[in-house]
Amino acid sequence: MLTGKKILVGVTGSIAAYKSAFLVRELIRLGADVRVVMTPASREFITPLTLSTLSKNPVAVDFVKPETNGQAGEWESHVELGLWADLFIIAPVSANTLSKMVTGQCDNLLMATYLSAKCPVWIAPAMDLDMYKHPSTQENLTKLTAQTIRVIDPTSGELASGLDGKGRMQEPEEIADQIDAWFNPASKLRGKKILITGGPTYEAIDPVRFIGNHSSGKTGVILADACANRGAEVLLITGPTQQRVKNPRVKVIAVTSADEMMKTVEQNWFDCTVGIYSAAVADYKPEFAAGEKIKKTDDRLTLNLVKNPDILKWAGLNKKKDQYLVGFALETENELENGTKKLVAKKLDLLVLNSLKDAGAGFGHDTNKVTFIKPNNKTATFELNEKTVLMNRLLDEIEHDL
Ligand code: CTP
Q: Whose CA, among 68, 184, 327, 384, lies 20 to 30 Å from 167?
């Protein structure tokens, strides 16, 4: 996450300027404070209004602020912008701006900001393949690299000119990832495949009715977003939920019943390093789901229920040596004792014990109260807190153990 980090995005005149909108949005999503400085030429490609709306801050373009409410003549301080930022990323950087950065030519606010910036500066070039290959551009990049400016290499592909080659600005999500990794270098989850189950399961009685439970699916979605924010490759297998993942890098497979969830887990568990099974799986299902809607002809209706597969137990029994498995439990009595039994029986590395007793904890709330149980009776109990905070604490614990 980039919470509390101040990132200044510089935009120069290139077709790829439209990608800076996605970069700003991605940085905001990761929690950063974002401000934008544009060159006059970049306004031909993207409007300051788009970038100020996405960054939630006014955009700096000219040395003098535009007249507002009858007040004029206010200076846009390039020094203040350069000092404010923890990181200055110029994306896209054009061949023209690259050249100015080398010579120190200061004919716009972005260049003045660059020359007065005290923070690390990164650049993401975007230009036509021949412009990029040109010895002058390459020499400029070498000189800037020697000044400790970090260059995010362009990628190859179809260019605005219609030609094919190297020169496309790196994708905004990838740039944001690299920024996140730079600020948070320690995450052991980066690049790891993580399987998460979440939400309830619905067990069909007939085509219109089912047996379900009150799980909202929030915990699964929070976990999936938090893992992806740490750079993991996430697969969320979730039962029916209204919750939406925010991180575009989470792959979601929506399932309905425990059997479907089981099948999807079987197909994916062996590819993953970590499994976090937070779904509230129905323990029982109707033995037969009626093909047609059941009519209310009789005074009594008896449903025969049979046991669902225990998905977590299957994952534990089939766990490989290098896989780390987390399960959840909701106990109403002898919580620690029963939780520990579950940890052993399902061969877990960590069990998250949920509370139903505390106000604000349990189904549907944004807060929860949990205890972590690990092998050898190691436990840690946490106060009532936001689910996001607690699930990030869980990820810290997993990272510690990996
Ligand atoms: N779980 C599962 N498949 C099931 C039932 C539960 O994968 N059919 C998983 C849940 O995702 C959770 C854990 O098992 O991580 C604990 O579920 P819980 O309902 O507390 O325990 P059970 O094992 O079902 O035992 P019991 O209901 O008897 O307490």
A: 184
Q: What distance in Å separates the CA atoms of residue 290 and residue 268, rounded to the nearest whole number?
A: 31
Proportion of the chain above pLDDT 90, given as a percent: 72
Is CATH 3.20.20.120 correct for 6-183?
Answer: no
How far apart, in whole angstroms, are the C-alpha atoms of residue 199 and residue 255? Answer: 10
Q: What are phi and psi of 93, to 5 degrees?
A: -105, 130
How far is the centre of ligand 1, averaged over its atoms, from the C-alpha of 157 (Å)? Answer: 48
The answer on pLDDT for 359 being more than 80 is: no
Q: Read off the tokens for 224.
A: 């999936």
Give the whole-angstrom CA distance, residue 384 versus residue 373: 17
Annotation says 392 is catalytic: no
Q: Which ligand 1 atom minimizes the distance to the CA of 282?
A: 8
Q: What is the pLDDT of residues 4-18, one digit of tens each?
A: 899 999 999 999 999
Of all protein residues, whose CA lies closest to atom 27 belonging to ligand 1? Answer: 283
Tell me the CATH number of domain 193-401, given options 3.40.50.450, 3.40.50.10300, 3.10.20.30, 3.20.20.70: 3.40.50.10300
Q: How far is the CA of 345 from the centre of ligand 1 (A)?
A: 11
